[in-house]
Automatic annotation (TrEMBL):
InterPro entries: Hpr_kin/Pase_C, P-loop_NTPase. Residues 1-99 form the HPr kinase/phosphorylase C-terminal domain. The lineage of its organism: unclassified sequences, metagenomes, ecological metagenomes. Keywords: Kinase, Transferase. It comes from hydrothermal vent metagenome. One of its GO terms (biological process) is regulation of carbohydrate metabolic process. This is HPr kinase/phosphorylase. Pfam families: Hpr_kinase_C. One of its GO terms (molecular function) is ATP binding.
Length: 129
């Protein structure tokens, strides 16, 4: 998450290049599902990613996923965060990290965070209501 021009789409493009699949760019619909949150794409922007200097590009995408990790973009994240912790979104606690999206290692850091979470994720978070 971050304001316009903060590097969200650029980071998404680099993650897609590493094998990730697009859910949504710019607008994401968040809804409660079980103990977690579902993220989905509005029909009008499905499969579309704004790539600066190129324009709107179409990619394979998924319509709906369970939110596993919230990534907040920051130009200077803490070197040793005391507690990466959780943030509350729609009355649900979501694991959260802070990343500088323009660091070359940003996509790898997100993948590492997701791999660490897979070891501790509550199965109830992934149930859709």
């Amino acid at each position: 998450m971050g304001p316009s021009g903060s590097g969200k789409s650029d980071l998404a493009l680099r993650l897609i290049d590493r094998g990730a699949v697009l859910v949504a760019d710019d607008q994401v619909i968040l809804t409660k599902c079980g103990n977690g949150i579902a993220a989905s794409v509005p029909d009008v922007t499905a499969g579309k990613l704004e790539v600066r200097s190129i324009g709107i590009v179409e990619f394979n995408h998924v319509e709906n996923v369970t939110l596993q990790l919230k990534v907040n973009l920051s130009s200077q994240p803490e070197r040793f965060p005391m507690d990466s912790g959780n943030e509350t979104l729609l009355d649900r606690k979501i694991p959260t990290i802070y990343i500088n999206p323009f660091e070359p290692s940003a996509p790898a850091k997100i993948e590492l965070a997701l791999k660490r979470l897979k070891k501790v994720i509550d199965p109830e978070m992934t149930k859709h209501s």
